[in-house]
Every structure is written in structure tokens, then in C-alpha cells.
């Protein structure tokens, strides 16, 4: 069952970011979406751009922030700054 906050997020995805319903439906079938990782699932499958992902995180911070989403974003997801400015991979950036 979809929670009220998740329904609001889906409405934001559909109306503000114009994410197709089929893309959202595919992400909702993913087992990990149960733990609040819908935005990351959409991004991992190439269904949203980094710019859209940033807007989703902004929306979540303003309207849908829950302790679970915040802790998962801080501990397991790439930071918004890291996705905007990824570190270039060169031989000097590897740690042996």
C-alpha cells in the first residue's frame, strides 16, 4: 500500500518533473522501493536525470522528509554534491 507521502511524491514526479507513469510503475515494482529508495531507483535505471534527482531531493527535504529517507540518503546514497561534481578517475585517485 502506498503511504500519503509516497503518493505526494508520485504526484510531484508526474506533474512537476513529467516522469512517465510507466517509469514510476516500474520503479514501484522494484523490491527496494519499500525502504524509501524510489528516487535512487529511478536514477539508477536512467529514468531521471541528475538535475531531476536533485529536484526530488529538494522536494523531499521540504515536504516529505522522514527519518528513514534522511538516514539512507546520508549513509548509503551519493551526496548531491558528489553527483554534481564527481571526482575524476585518474591513476592518482586510486588507493592501493
| Structural class estimated from helices and strands | mainly alpha
* Structure summary, number of beta strands: 0
Biggest pleated sheet: none
Helix content: 55-70%
Helices, by number, come to 6
Indicate the proportion of strand residues. under 5%
State mean pLDDT (0 to 100 scale): 75
Q: Which regions contain 5 or more consecutive residues with pLDDT less than 50? A: 67-77, 79-96
Query: What separation lies between the terminal Cα atoms?
Result: 46 Å
Helix-strand topology string:
HHHHHH
Q: Which overall shape is indicated by the principal axes computed on the Cα atoms?
A: globular
Rg is 15 Å
Quick structural summary:
The chain has six helices and no strands.
Overview of the molecule:
The protein is mainly alpha-helical. Helix content is 59%, strand content 0%. The chain is built from six helices and no strands. The protein is globular. The relative contact order is 0.13. Mean pLDDT is 75; it is low at 67-77 and 79-96.
Keywords:
globular; single chain; mainly alpha; 96 residues; 6 helices; 59% helix
Secondary structure layout:
Elements: H1 4-15, H2 21-29, H3 38-44, H4 50-64, H5 67-75, H6 80-84
